[in-house]
Amino acid sequence: MTNLDGVRLTAPGLYTAAGADPASLWEALVAGKDTGRPYESLAGTWPGAGTVFLVDDPDAATLGVHRRVLRTSEKQARMALLGARLALTGPSVTGPVGGEGWGLYLGLPTVDEQLLRFSALDGLRRAADDSPGAVAALYGREVPPFSGLSHLNSTAAAHISATFGLTGAMAAYSPFSDAGLTALVDGVLSVAEGENEAAVIGAVSPKVHPLLFPQYEELGWTGAAPGEGAAFLVARRAADVPAAPDGPAVRLAGYGRGFGADDADLTSALTEAVRAALEMAGTDAAGIGWVLPDAGWTAAGEQAQRAALGRVFGPAGGWPAVAGAERATGVLGPAHPLVHGVLALHGLATGRLLADDGETVREEPLPVDRALVLACGARGQVCAVVLEGAGS
Amino acid sequence: MSRRVVVTGLGAVCGLGLDWQTMWEGLCEGRSAIRGWQPPGVDDFPVRYAAPVDDAAFAARYGTDADPAEPVERRVRFGLAAAGQALADAGLAAGGDGAPQAGRIGTAVGSGVPERDPLELLPALGEDGQPSWQALYARRDQLDRASGLFCTNDALAAGIAARHRLRGPALNFSTACAGATHAIGHGFRMIRRGEVDAMVVGGADSVLNLPTMTGLHLLGAPSTSELFGDRLCRAFDRDRSGLVAAEGAAMLVLESEESARRRGATVYAEVAGFGSSLDAYQVTAPHPDGVGAALAMRRALADGGVDPEAVDSVNAHGTSTPLNDPIETRAIKDVFAGGEHYRKLAVTANKTMLGHLIAAAGAPELIATVLSVRDGIVPPTLNLTNPDPACDLDYVPDKARHQEVSVAVSNSFGFGGLNASLVVRGYDD
C-alpha cells in the first residue's frame, strides 16, 4: 500500500451555520449556541423538517468572482467555491496556488435544483392534460437558461478549478457522506503517489430544499435536521508545508473503506473499515483519542456505527471521547465528515478534543493525538480515516 | 505494492446491442445506433436524433424491472445488466475457484444525474391549485418510487455491490462526461496499490427523456440538425453540429494479474495507466488550446511508463461538437509531437456509431479500446466525408482497419473541463 507519511493536511476552510472558521464552530459547540433556524419556503415546509442549519448564499464579491459565475452555478457550487477560497487564502497557504501540480478532490451531493419553478406547476398540469407536446413546449418556455448546468453537480469542480487555476489530477464523488471522506483519502493518495504536488480537498452539502426530503425518507431518514455548508483542506507534500503558522500539521495515517448491503453487513463493513484504518496507522483502539462519528442520518447507519465502535473499542476497555459537529451545523451530507476532519485538525493542533455526553459538548485535553473520523453512506458505503498529529 | 491490472470481464448495453459482443461487432462493421428520436408523444422537439436502447429487446432479455420490490431508474437497470454480464464473463458471478474475497472486490461507476421530471411534482398541487410541499407529502404514496424524485447518484454503485454481494468500496464518480473514465481509472489505481483485488468499473446513463434533453438543448450541446439523418454524428467533419445523445451502460471487471492468473481467467488486455486533469478555463467551454486534454493524456502515459511513440491508436472523445473535435486534435498533436508520431496514430470516434452516453461514455469506448488491442482492429469514424482542415489526423474514416494495436489511449473530456485518459496495452504474460 501507498506510504502516506510524506503528506500533510493543512489549510482548513470551513463554511457552516456556526461560522466560517474552525474556532468558531468549536466555540459554538462548547457554548451550546443555537445556530439552527425554523425552515421556511415559499410553498411551505416538508413535515418533520422544522429546524435547519442554513448559510447565506455567497455573492460574487464574497466569492471574488465575476457576476457571470453566478449564472452558471447554483448554491451548492457557490458554497464549495467559498470553502475553497477560505482554505486557499488562509494563513496556512503560502506561495503560489494553482498550476499543473495542484489537483482537486470533491465530495458532492446530488444536485438539488428544480427544473421548473414551483409556480409553473399549475401551467404544467394544464399542459399535461393537453398533450406531451404541450408539456415539451412548456419546458422550452419555462426551464431557465443554464438549467442543464444545474443538473451537473460537477460544475462546482469547474468553478473552483477556473477560479484558482488548478489543472492537476482530479476526481469528484457523490452523493453522501462517504463521498466526502473518499475525496479526502484519494486526494491524499494523489499527493502520496506523486500525481499531484498539492490537492485541494473539499466537500459540500446540498442546498436545503424540500425536493430532497422524499429521497431522504426513501433511504430511512431519521428526521435529523439538515444543514448547509462546505469544508476544505489542502493535502501537501510535507516538505512544502511551512513551519506551523497555525499549529502542527496533521497527516492521514490510515484509512479503510467498504460496503455493507444490509444492517448486519453494514456493521461488519464499518468494523472492518475502522480496523483497516487503525492497522494502516500502526495503532489500535487504545491509540485513538477522539472519535468523530458520522451524523445520525439513517437508523441503520446509527446502529451500525454504535455496534462497530463497540466491537472496536469495547474490548480495549473503554471508549475514547465521541463528539461531532451536528448540534451546530446540522447534517451536511458529503461535507459532514470533512467538517469533522477540519475539527480534528483544530483539536490535534491545539491538543484538545470535544466530548458529547448527550446533553452538552465539553472540551477536554486530547490524550492521544489521533482522531478517528467515520462516514456511513445512506446505501451502505462506509469509510474510516485516522488523522494523526504529524509529530507522532 | 504496485501490481499489474488486467481486464477479465466485459458487459455492455447500448443502442448497438445488449451485450459487448454485439456492440463490438457493430462497431467493427460500422453500424450506427443513431436513429430518429422524439420524447414519447412529442413530434416537434428540436433535438431529432439519438441512440436509444431497444426497449423491447432489453425487456425480453433482462425483464422490465430489475426488482419490482426495489424499483430503480432506467440508467440503473442498464448498469445492473452490464455489470451482471461483466461479472459472468469474468467468471466471478458466483464466486468460483480462487475468486477474490467479497471484501476485496469493489465497484466504481459514473452514472450521471437523476431523471428528474417535473411531472412527478404534480401531486404537490392542492385542491386550490396552489402548490405546497405539504400536499406532496400527503400524496407521497402516489409517487413513482423509480422516479428521479427518489433517486440518488449512488444507486448504481450500491446496487451492483448489493446484488453481487461485493463488500469492497462502492464509489460513484460525478465528473460529467468523464465520469466512467474516472471511475475506471480509480478502480485501476485501487487494484494497483493493493487496496482491492478486483473492481467492477464503468458507467451507465440515460438522458433520453424530455426534462434532461431540454436541459442539454438549452446548453446548446446536442445537434438539432436534420440534414444528415442517422448520419448526424460527424466527429471531425466540417459539417458536425453537436453531439447526438445516447443511453446505455458498459462495465468491465478489472483484476490484479496475480488474481487473474490464480483463477486461470481469460485476460483481454492490460490497463497500464490513468491520468486526469482540469482545464481551469470556463464552465461552458473547453480550453481552446486543449491544455487540459493534453495533460490528461500525458499523465496517463507517464503513469503507465508508456512512451508516446509506442501508442498505435487513440479512441477519441470525438463528440462531433464544433469545439471539442479541433481542440482534441490539437491536444493529440501536442502529446504525440515527438517525431510527428501523431501522423502514425489511428484515431477513432466511437460516438459516430454509439452516440454520446454522457457520464457513461468512457466505458463502452474503453471496451472498444480493449478489444481493439486484443483483436487488432480499429473501428471506424463514420460520416467523415468533408474533413475539417483543423482536424487533420488519420481518423480511420468509414471502414474498420485491421492493424496491430499494441498500445491505445482512450479519452473522455467532461463538461467544465474535467478530463480523463486511460492507456491500454496488450497483455503478455
Strand-helix topology:
The complex is a heterodimer of chains A (392) and B (429).
Chain A: E1 7-16, H1 22-31, E2 37-38, E3 51-52, H2 60-63, H3 68-71, H4 75-88, E4 102-107, H5 121-130, H6 132-142, H7 147-150, H8 155-164, E5 170-173, H9 177-192, E6 198-204, H10 213-218, E7 229-237, E8 250-259, H11 263-280, E9 290-292, H12 299-313, E10 321-322, H13 326-329, H14 335-350, E11 352-356, E12 361-365, E13 370-376, E14 381-389
Parallel strand pairs in A: 4-5, 4-6, 9-10, 9-13
Antiparallel strand pairs in A: 1-7, 2-3, 6-7, 8-14, 11-12, 13-14
Helix pairs in contact in A: 4-8, 5-6, 9-14, 11-12
Chain B: E1 5-13, H1 20-29, E2 35-36, E3 49-50, H2 55-62, H3 74-89, E4 105-110, H4 133-138, H5 155-163, E5 170-173, H6 179-192, E6 198-206, H7 210-219, E7 247-256, H8 257-263, E8 269-278, H9 291-303, E9 313-315, H10 324-335, E10 346-348, H11 351-354, H12 362-375, E11 377-378, E12 401-402, E13 407-414, E14 418-425
Parallel strand pairs in B: 4-5, 4-6, 9-10, 9-13
Antiparallel strand pairs in B: 1-7, 1-8, 2-3, 6-7, 8-14, 11-12, 13-14
Helix pairs in contact in B: 3-5, 9-10
Structural description of this entry:
The complex is a heterodimer of chains A (392) and B (429). With 392 residues, chain A is α/β, with parallel strands linked by helices. Chain A is built from 14 helices and 14 strands. In chain A, helix 4 (75-88) packs parallel to helix 8, helix 5 runs antiparallel to helix 6 and helix 9 (177-192) packs across helix 14. The longest helix of chain A is centred in the last third of the chain and has 18 residues, at 263-280. Chain B has 429 residues and is an alpha/beta fold. Chain B contains twelve helices and 14 strands. Chain B has helices spanning 20-29, 55-62, 74-89, 133-138, 155-163, 179-192, 210-219, 257-263, 291-303, 324-335, 351-354, 362-375, and strands at 5-13, 35-36, 49-50, 105-110, 170-173, 198-206, 247-256, 269-278, 313-315, 346-348, 377-378, 401-402, 407-414, 418-425. The radius of gyration of chain B is 21 Å and the shape is globular. At the A-B interface, helix 5, helix 6, helix 7, helix 8 and strand 5 of A face helix 4, helix 5, strand 5, helix 6 and helix 7 of B.
